[in-house]
Specification:
With about 575 residues, the chain is of the alpha/beta class. About 55% of the residues lie in helices and about 10% in strands. It has two domains: about 230 residues, no CATH class; about 260 residues, 3-Layer(aba) Sandwich (Alkaline Phosphatase, subunit A).
């Protein structure tokens, strides 16, 4: 049988379109996994073992301690608002000390920000970017610094501290598995009181995990979360009472908060902002905001210690009750050394050296080095993005040259896809481009599988819309049962999928231009990285739908009410 010449182009679109869609689906799936693992397996160029000497002993020796003893209490998963509404002991300490709200670095996950609290290094510096980190983090902690200075230290916390910080069972150490009890924080407070009497430490680090569990199980706005916060507050009160009369300074903070429904990792205000309460010996009343990276250097100043080697921020000076500015000399010298090291490392990876110091300060030099390298890399990535954009336009133009009706219908179907998928994601589920959507890491695979399924459903709905629109663009539409029009209906399915994939590729190309697929020296904007990965996940499902799309367009064309 001789095929009508008018349908040859559509047969080509049909066959080539299906093949290209499947190849794009495979490529998107591979790129999604690669990019995800780039963040998970990120190797920071800023930390080294051993730490550079200039970061360990920068500047003059620290002044004598301002505080005799510091108790650093980390309440895992504590929201700032709940610390004010459900924790009277914390409120009392706040009223007699310094009240700060700190921003946590991205991602707002536990291991990364436990590391930030104890080392002063954000995930970009420490390299601890997820809770899947499997070895000892490389940056020295406050615990290491205090022990090196000859100070006694007490540590009470979860068994995860052993793996992450290299803390082994020993005198002055209590590590408990949170699963050994429904409420382990009370036991850890008891252990802290006992160990402190036995060893007379200068630094006490106690980590209380139960509120985070309540946040995941019940949500950050739940009565149970408030109840556990109050229970922890009562135990903190016991700790404060037990330490009275020993010239003790209390520092209470959190690694992250929780969303109302439970979960963290993203950038919601309830997750991103955590309390920091300083009270007791060596503390003056103050209020303000800061960053979680400032906890470690502030504790170091209070105890007369050097900053941990990779601490990237300076102490919160306003909370320290002293008029002797020499107290901050070591902290300031370390910060200058860290900034210099950061600039050297940033400029030492194949980019041109940055001249000047930005706004004239060391922090300005850091910003200038970061922006200079990022700008240079964006210029180098621009050709790839342009090629992708040109390819997308070329595919759309090719479809339009074969059949403008197919192109118009495909765009209508693509619009329908975004309405359906976006409605499911943003409205029905109430998600945002946020890692908090997972609640816990165990749900990552399930979450992504749901996105695959919903993308596939939305894509087929989009194909159905395209098939419905397609006959409306003809004055006397014919159905696919007519051989002359069969190729048009069959080709419309992969053509719609191609156009839809093209709209997503334009967004992926923009991300690749801005941040690239490789994570080498700087964590990308993880909110945009999460969207980028979701775009690739959608494309993986949408491309496969090219196998089923021709059947959808054929059936709708066959039974379309306007088809003769």
């Amino acid at each position: 049988m001789k095929w009508p010449n008018a349908s040859v182009g559509m047969w080509i679109v049909f066959v080539v379109g299906v093949v290209v869609c499947l190849l794009l689906a495979k490529g998107a799936s591979s790129l999604a996994l690669y990019s995800w693992n780039q963040v998970v397996d990120y190797k920071s160029p800023y930390v080294s073992t051993p730490a550079p000497a200039e970061l360990i002993s920068a500047g003059p020796a620290p002044e004598p301690a301002v505080a005799h003893r510091v108790v650093l209490i980390i309440v895992d998963g504590l929201r700032d608002d709940v610390s004010r509404s459900a924790m009277p002991t914390v409120q009392t300490l706040r009223a007699h000390g310094a009240d700060f709200t700190l921003a946590v670095p991205q991602p707002s996950l536990s291991y990364p920000n436990w590391t930030t609290i104890l080392t002063g290094a954000s995930p970009q510096i420490s390299g601890v970017t997820t809770n899947w980190y499997t070895s000892r983090e490389p940056a020295p902690t406050l615990i290491d610094v205090a022990r090196s200075a000859g100070d006694r230290v007490v540590v009470a916390g979860p068994t995860d501290f052993s793996k992450l910080f290299g803390i082994k069972p020993a005198k002055g150490v209590s590590l408990r598995d949170p699963s050994e009890s429904d409420y382990v924080s009370g036991m850890l407070i008891d252990d802290t009181l006992r160990l402190s009497q036995e060893t007379s430490p200068a630094l006490i680090v106690v980590h209380l995990p139960d509120l985070d569990t309540a946040g995941h199980d019940f949500g950050g706005a739940s009565p149970k979360y408030q109840e556990v916060a109050t229970q922890i507050d009562t135990d903190i009160g016991r700790l404060v009472l037990g330490m009275q009369g020993t010239s003790t300074t209390f520092v209470i903070t959190a690694d992250h908060g929780h969303t109302d429904s439970g979960g963290h990792g993203g950038w919601e205000p309830s997750v991103l902002h955590v309390p920091a309460v300083f009270s007791g010996d060596g503390i003056r009343p103050a209020k303000g905001t800061g960053d979680l990276q400032q906890i470690a250097p502030t504790v170091a100043v209070l105890l007369g210690l050097r900053d941990p080697a990779f601490a990237e921020a300076q102490a919160i000076r306003s909370v320290v009750a002293t008029n002797n500015q020499a107290v901050f000399a070591s902290d300031q010298a370390h910060h200058l050394a860290f900034d210099s090291e950061y600039v050297d490392v940033t400029n030492g990876h194949g980019t041109s050296q940055q001249d000047g110091m930005g706004d004239g300060t060391p922090d300005g030099a850091v910003a200038a080095a970061r922006q200079g390298r990022l700008a240079a890399e964006r210029w180098s990535r621009l050709p790839l993005a342009v090629v992708i954009w040109i390819a997308v336009i070329a595919v759309a133009a090719a479809i339009g040259m074969v059949s403008w009706r197919a192109l118009v219908s495909a765009f209508a179907g693509s619009a329908a896809y975004y309405v359906v998928y976006g409605g499911l994601f943003f409205v029905i589920h109430g998600y945002h481009w946020s890692l908090s959507a997972f609640n816990t890491e165990t749900y990552v695979k399930t979450f992504m599988n749901w996105r695959l399924g919903e993308a596939g459903i939305a894509a087929l709905v989009g194909v159905a819309v395209a098939a419905f629109v397609y006959p409306l663009l003809r004055r006397n539409p014919k159905g696919p049962q007519t051989l002359e029009y069969l190729s048009g209906y069959l080709a419309l399915g992969p053509a719609t999928i191609l156009v839809l994939l093209g709209t997503l590729w334009t967004q992926v190309a923009w991300y690749l231009w801005q941040w690239g697929a490789d994570v080498v020296w700087m964590l990308p904007d993880l909110r945009l990285a999460f969207k980028y990965d979701l775009d690739l996940v959608q494309m993986s499902a949408i491309g496969v739908c090219a196998l089923f799309a021709p059947l959808v367009t054929y059936l709708i064309g066959r039974y379309h009410p306007k088809v003769m």
